[in-house]
Specification:
Elements (H helix, E strand, L loop, with lengths): L5 H7 L13 E12 L2 E9 L9 E2 L2 E3 L8 H13 L6 E6 L3 E3 L3 E10 L14 E8 H6 L3 E9 L2 E3 L5 E3 L16 E13 L2 E4 H19 L1
Parallel strand pairs: 1-7
Antiparallel strand pairs: 1-2, 1-4, 2-3, 2-8, 5-7, 6-7, 9-12, 10-11, 12-13
């Protein structure tokens, strides 16, 4: 490796940097549906089915990116929305994409903002295995209502103990001759959690973070 050609390295670097090691995450995409109802735009939410991952929580339609069937994360978002809500292609108009969200639990979310044209939520055919119900909340509610903000303490555990008392080492810090602080659980910073209380339940976590981002873009567009 003595003769490294820097010009050749330059040619293989990404023109637009992405997310390093993204393939190691649970990669997903969501659609943030905006529905105009009674002359006002609303967010369209779904309450997840009780028996699926993160059951009974409020979210936007979306799911895991499938490289076998999806050519892009946008295809994932549209496919999942159609499957979960029964929305037709012609009723979805993509407005644009927000920044990719990286969750602390090993998840990435590619979010897409879209207008969904429906007259009434009752016109949609839900996948009852995944969606318990859907509902609308005016965007103005989130614009006018400040969310609750919490900070969770995050820790990294280099080992764990089984129910039988057996210690399972995940990271051999001692063998690697690392500083002593890495032999025990160490603090890995704080995790910001946003939450809005609504009549339909608490909206929090990734969904609340996406709402907050949309609101910030609305505020920015009002300035321009």
């Amino acid at each position: 490796m003595k003769n490294i050609n820097l010009e050749k390295i330059k040619r293989v670097l990404p023109e637009i940097p992405g997310i390093l090691r993204k393939k190691e995450y649970f990669n997903s995409a969501v659609l943030i549906p905006l529905v105009k109802y009674k002359d006002e735009y609303h967010f369209l939410f779904e309450k997840r089915g009780a028996k699926i991952r993160q059951g009974s929580e409020i979210c936007f339609p979306g799911g895991e990116y499938d490289p076998k069937s999806d050519k892009s994360f946008l295809e994932t978002a549209i496919r999942e929305t159609k499957e979960e809500l029964g929305v037709k292609d012609e009723d979805i108009s993509i407005i644009g994409k927000l920044d990719i969200l990286i969750g602390n639990m090993g998840v990435t979310v590619d979010p897409f903002l879209a207008e969904v044209r429906i007259k009434d939520t009752g016109d949609l055919t839900l996948d009852k295995n995944e969606v318990e119900k859907i509902f609308l909340i005016p965007i103005s509610y989130f614009y006018d209502t400040k969310p609750e903000i919490y900070y969770l303490k995050m820790q990294v555990h280099p080992y764990y103990t089984t129910e039988n008392g057996e210690r399972i080492d995940l990271f051999p810090a001692k063998d690697l001759d690392l500083p002593e602080k890495y032999l025990s659980p160490w603090t890995a910073g704080k995790h910001k959690v946003i939450a809005w209380r609504t009549n339909e339940g608490t909206i929090w976590g990734i969904t609340a973070a996406l709402i907050s981002e949309v609101i910030s873009k609305i505020e920015l567009s009002d300035i321009e």
